[in-house]
Amino acid sequence: MAAQLNPILEWVGNRAGVVLDMKTGLNFDETQRHLMRGQYDFFIGYPAFQPELRDRLGYRVLAKLKGSASAAIVVQADSPYKQLLDIQGQELVMARRGVFISNLLPAAMLAKQNIQVVPKYMSNQTALATEFKIKRINAAAVSWSVFSALMRDRPEQYRVLWRSGDVLNYPLLVQNSVPLGVAERVQQAFVDMANDETGRAILAQVNQRSGIKWLGWDKASEADYASAIAAYRQLGAQDQ
Questions:
Q1: Which of 162, 164, 152, 177 has the alpha carbon at shortest distance from 59?
Q2: DSSP state, 115?
Q3: Can you tell me the distance from the alpha carbon of 107 to that of 34, in angstroms, rounded to the nearest whole number?
Q4: pTM greater than 0.90 (yes/no)
Q5: Do 58 and 76 sit in the same domain of this protein?
Q6: Chain centre to alpha carbon of residue 13
Q7: Is 26 helix (H, G, I), strand (E, B) or coil?
Q8: What would the pLDDT profile of 121-157 be if each residue is shown by its tens digit?
Q9: How many CB atoms lie within 10 A of CB 58?
Q10: What's the pLDDT band for 236 if we cut at 50, 70, 90?
Q11: pLDDT-based confidence at 96, cuts 50/70/90?
Q12: Is residue 62 domain-shared with residue 76, that is, in the same domain?
């Protein structure tokens, strides 16, 4: 992730006249702790929609990553699970609570179909794919684009039991403590990147690596992510 994002942030920072330092945790739990402490001025990802963060830190949407995202439930190619009902009562590896694509979306679908599983949580998709390749995981809920990219050397190893419809790709958010002028310059720089010759070259270079495909950004607002915000509100109410 650092190898992908650092060149992007350097270009955006130079364009916006600010210094953007990438900071993340070794896994989702550590990143979540940083997020809860308000240690990210800007954040790329759905977890900033968690109600306690929106209420306390006031993260708001600036832009959305071009393209779309979807969730999937995958199993080993030789798995006895042929349909979703077959995973009833079985272990399902998924992302931690707070992750939209590879936790909230599949969990909501399973609940709607009254399919109960035994969740096992993993903190990053790279570790999940590694465990899947050596067959320590039988069934998993994943971010489809990330998982399929990480498994591109073994496409014959897995089958897809379910895949969600497309949802908006990752949001770019800013904490309310960031001065408005800075936020606007950073927003515009992200949006300009795919339209700039050097910016496009950087995006093409980083996209040669496996992982998220950074295609550029479009301006966005809270309204674009209203359904995700509502889903996090509902999840928080259910957890109380």
A1: 177
A2: -
A3: 25
A4: no
A5: no
A6: 22
A7: coil
A8: 997 888 899 999 999 999 999 999 889 989 999 999 9
A9: 14
A10: low
A11: confident
A12: no
